[in-house]
Amino acid sequence: MPVMSETIYKKTDGKLINNFYNTATELMLAAGKKEESLARERVEVNPEDDKAVISVIADGAWARRSNKSIFSANSGVTCIIGKRTGKRLYLGVKNKYCCVCASKILSLHTYVTKIITVVLYFWLP
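RE: above sequence
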C-alpha cells in the first residue's frame, strides 16, 4: 500500500480541519439561532436592547492531579449547551503551551490561542 507524502498529508489535513471547523461553526450558529427563536416565542427578551435571553448549561475542565507531585495540564476544555435544545453553542480547547512559541519561531504568528472546536465537536454526542 503506498504511503501519502508529507506535502499531500499537510494539504489534506489542512482541508479536513477547515471543513470540520466550518461545519462545527455552522452547526453551533444554527443551534444559537434556534435557541434565540425559542426564547422569542416565549417572549424572553431583554427590554433594554431587544435581545433574546436564553438559558445555557456551561461546564469547563482543567486537568489537575496529584500523585505525590503537583500537576496542572497545559490545556483545558469548555462547553456551552443550550438548555432548551440540548445542542452545543460553543465548544473549545485552550492551550497554554505552543510548540511554535517554544521553538522561538515567533515570526510565524504573533498571537497563539488555538481553539480546537473542530474535532471535539464531532467527538461529543
